[in-house]
């Protein structure tokens, strides 16, 4: 499989890992859009949200739990933060392995910016 995030999970490619548990790996984004910008990826490969099956639904819950835990550790949980899941090209997905962006440390506006 030629998946960038699978290669990071397998330690074939280095990353600045900030969190890991049995199901999730989190690392700093190499192109941060906020003072803190972490990517959270499930260790199980699922290409897009559209590809989720009932047996792997808990993956999104695990990503959310890990994001909230990191937001608390980074100290911006109470002030607020943004989490984003992109799906497919027009949704902004560039790596086809579901992942969550955790961004904090600044005020966010809507539309996203």
From TrEMBL:
Residue stretches making up the HIT domain: 4-113
Family matches, as Gene3D superfamilies: HIT-like
Which SUPFAM superfamilies does the entry mention? Answer: HIT-like
TM annotation in the entry? none
Extract the CDD domains matched here. PKCI_related (cd01276)
Pfam families, alphabetized: HIT
Motif Histidine triad motif, residue range(s) on this chain:
97-101
Q: What is the recorded name of this protein?
A: Histidine triad nucleotide-binding protein
């Amino acid at each position: 499989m030629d998946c960038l995030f699978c290669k990071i999970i397998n330690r074939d490619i280095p990353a600045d890992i900030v969190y890991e548990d049995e199901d999730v790996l989190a690392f700093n984004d190499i192109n941060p859009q906020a003072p803190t910008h972490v990517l959270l990826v499930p260790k199980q490969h699922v290409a897009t949200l559209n590809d989720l099956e009932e047996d792997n639904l808990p993956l999104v819950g695990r990503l959310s739990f890990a994001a909230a835990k990191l937001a608390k550790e980074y100290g911006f949980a109470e002030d607020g933060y943004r989490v984003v899941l992109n799906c497919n090209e027009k949704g902004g997905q560039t790596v086809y392995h579901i992942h969550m962006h955790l961004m904090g440390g600044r005020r966010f506006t809507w539309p996203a910016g």
